[in-house]
Amino acid sequence: MLAQHNNQSVPVYKLYGEAQQWPTPDMFHCERIADRSKLHDWQIKLHQHHSLVQLLYLKGGTAQVALDGTSYSLGSGHLVQVPPMCVHGFRFNPNTDGHVLTLASPLAKRLVQAIDPAVNLLNTPYVYELKGADNPKGFSIDTAFTVLQDEYESNQAYRAAFIEALLTAILVWISRNGPHPAADGTPESQRSRQHFQRFNELIENHYTEQLSIENYASKLGITAAHLNSLCRQIVGQSALQLVHQRVILAAKRSLVYTSMTVSSLSYSLGFNDPAYFSRFFKRETGLSPRQFRHEAASVLKQE
Hints:
By secondary structure, the protein is α+β, with helices and mostly antiparallel strands.
């Protein structure tokens, strides 16, 4: 069971169970699933990381995975993407085989920008299913993680360069196989994707401030109509829908993983009237905040 945290905020770790500084001078960490999980009875309780991205490759065995309130039952051949501040937890069957890769956000951002400065990569929780040892051209996630683990534990010449090459290969695979906007090489489309990426960063920094779409567009140096147009072109949603989704995600996290009252939650998200927040939440989710908290608690108890 992936236990619910009712009486306190979800803990934030560097690595699960560690409160000390980053354990190596690298900006990445690679370990086998068993290295940490067997120390905790094969259960990694719900937690989150402030500035770390994690990729978990399930090579063999089974796992129950929780990502921001959504649960998955996974077998071998899955890759789990955990962005910063995503509430996540795992329960593995004993002797589950695989690897956990952790990247400091600055390194992850640099590697992603080297692939495509505008792609919205590693920012959302996602589960990738590997089929037929990955793609038909022969790139193997299994081989990449195995070699990466060996190289991480070694001290051979050009270790950092080789590790970054392996990381880049994994990220390219993710970019080709995930829910990411397809690249278009025209200058106009590149500018649109850059605006879209920057808009997502602005949402992350300002979603509790109740900014208007005009405010967001002004920060980008474009009109609100242009911002709405490029959002619909890239993801099929309006700019306001994307802002609302981020607010709802924050609300759901707090309702499920903390004991914060609905009133306190509404104020923390920039709402002046808790009743208006409750109507907004129900309009977006179909449930009142209290109904959502109750149903989420029931689901977690069944895991």
